[in-house]
Amino acid sequence: MHSSPPRRSSSGGGVLYLAPGVFTPLRRGHHARAAAPAVADVEAEGLTLAAVRVLGADALLPSTLLPAPPPPGELAVFRKAVEAYPPGPGAAPAVVWSHWAMRRTLRRLDPGHADGPDGEPDAAWLEGATWQVLTHQLAVLAALALPGEDCAVARAAGRRPVDVARGFVRAVRRRDWRQAAGAGRWLTLLEGVPQTLGLENGLDFVELMGGQDPLVALQVGAARLTRTGAFV
Question: Is the pTM of this model over 0.85?
Fold first, then answer.
């Protein structure tokens, strides 16, 4: 995260503004001690919180993957985003799971300010999903793809490595670099991924073609850190 974000017309622009601030500490191998985003008015604050909400648990990814506590200002912004955007009635399963992942991250990094139920949401909607839908949903929930973490979404992915690999290839062919990067991040964690996939080369290609998008760079970088233990 960076200080003094400019006004944005939508949370999408804010996400592209915040994502490099997550990616850079990961690449450097430490958490840059940046000031919390300063907000000049209610509108700017709302857009900043919405952007953090869209990034989800990945907004604090450096503190999840690296042994470094988050700067207090970043943690405060993240906590406020969690509180400001609870899933509404009838929210899509991916939205519910994203919020759950944020609460789990907050509980781990700031237990004194985390509350709410710890039980997992339902993941039955993934059980009968086609491989195309499964890959799309997993890419949306790539923030759940963390080493050593267990949840129903991760278990669903673990049962279908070949389907996720098919989805990765499809996303690359369709030039959907964000979906390919998210699927690739999951594939780094799964057992039974076909050797013929060539995941490492595939991630290199996704980065080459879509790496100018900070969200693609973030997902590919997280995949590499998961796979090798270091950014290369």
Answer: no
